[in-house]
Amino acid sequence: MDGSSNHNSNPNPARIILIPFMAQGHMIPMVDMARLLASSGALVTFITTPVNAARIRPIIDHIENSHLPVRFVQLPFPSADAGLPAGCENADLISSPDLFKSFMEALSLFGEQVKLYLTAANSTAVPADCIIFDCLNSWVRAVAKSLDIPHIMFYGPSCFYILCAHLLKKHQVLKSIDDDYEPFKVPELPEPVEVMKAQVMRWMDRPGWEKISEEFYKTEKSAFGVVMNTFEELEKSGLDKFRKEIGKKVWPIGPLSLANKDLDSKVMRGKASSIDTGVLSSWLDSKTPNSVMFVSFGSLSRNPISQLVQIGQGLESASSSQLSFIWVVKEAERSEEVENWLAEFEERTKGRGMVIRGWAPQAMILGHVTVGGFMTHCGWNSTLEAIAAGVVMATWPRFGDQFVNERLVVDVLRIGVAVGAKVPIFYADEMSGKGLVKGEEVRKVVEKVMQGGEEGEERRKRAKELAEKARKAMEEGGSSFENLKRVIQFAEGEKKHFE
Ligand code: UDP
């Protein structure tokens, strides 16, 4: 699967290898990164696995047809060797939380495949000047060191979250807190917000994960620098503080979703859309500006039927003849019972509501002028995609970085309203239905976000201003554009050094 038809005017381009973590929220921004690096003159090798390559086949074809110098390489993923079912090559295919550790083990074994690919005598690999790797791929440290290739870490979450995690570790804060739900302030955070232990505990902090956690920090230490999917104007004080804390280069190069300029590339992100985009466009076009609420909770969080019913009741009872909604119900949430309930729900909300079963073309939906609100789990990609589109948010975090992202959106940027979820729910645990949010809460927050009077208008104005800043950051001369150039220059400099 060699997609390189190099139309690069630079006869000696920087050669960069990208190694994503296999989860939608990590793969999608790295595919965007590949597109951007290649458009800016680098020769990119994107390493993935057969199942993931099949999923992004339309994007691979699209990039190849654009003659961008990105080479997609698929290497076998050793699922079976780590006790995983065959084909379990992406975090959204893990059926139970117990298997998450096996998935991390399979990833380490995958590192051996990558090393072999890069070093075997008959390898077709292009020599690399630099590796950019997802922060969860700690195995890259050993491979890069043994091959003497500089490596740059890609942090997918917000800088706000990464900085919080660093400061909590530095001050050993969590060890001194007994009450999981007692709000406390993160020391030294430039924009002080209150968080709770239960919400900021990472899976890496759990007993049994010490080795993985240790590897993670060793790898961060060994990396030359860090690239982040954010932009200087959005997280200025956090980025400055993080640079001081980490003592190395930190290049914000986002919002990466803005790498997708044409409709086709927006629609293809992640997986093939489960809805005909012509039908979707006509439906959206028939609405008035800012009247549609988009409801979607990323690629991993799952709602049990009890929660789906409450969401449906909230959307149905939100009072406005003008208010419409698009609601994404994931494949993993569907069952006969859910389908029976949905059929009646769709009948009652005909014309005003659309349910997408499976995968929605999120970047396209958020960018439509009639979409005025986004009920989100606060995954960082979704959050930043909403920011880039100037859409205000109803925040409903579930796990990981999401509660901290919520604080950034609601308290610091003031472009969102919290649904009020407090209890973290790790994605595959979710079927137990812990932390249920009532339909009445959903209704209130939908009305507040979509209407909200003067306060609502102010929120919308702030969101639009941030979207404008995001657009400028990615344009020629903008902060993220220039940072991306610096990353490429770094790789070029390394080339001179090694040749
Ligand atoms: N996404 C999408 N369609 C869907 C669900 C998700 O395009 O139906 C994309 C979304 O635009 C984002 C990514 O999947 O780019 C999800 O990443 P995020 O960090 O928001 O959440 P995660 O899935 O990692 O929890």
UniProtKB/TrEMBL annotation:
<keyword id="KW-0808">Transferase</keyword>
<comment type="similarity">
    <text>Belongs to the UDP-glycosyltransferase family.</text>
</comment>
<dbReference type="Pfam" id="PF00201">
    <property type="entry name" value="UDPGT"/>
</dbReference>
<dbReference type="InterPro" id="IPR002213">
    <property type="entry name" value="UDP_glucos_trans"/>
</dbReference>
<dbReference type="GO" id="GO:0035251">
    <property type="term" value="F:UDP-glucosyltransferase activity"/>
</dbReference>
<protein>
    <submittedName>
        <fullName>UDP-glycosyltransferase 73C4</fullName>
    </submittedName>
</protein>
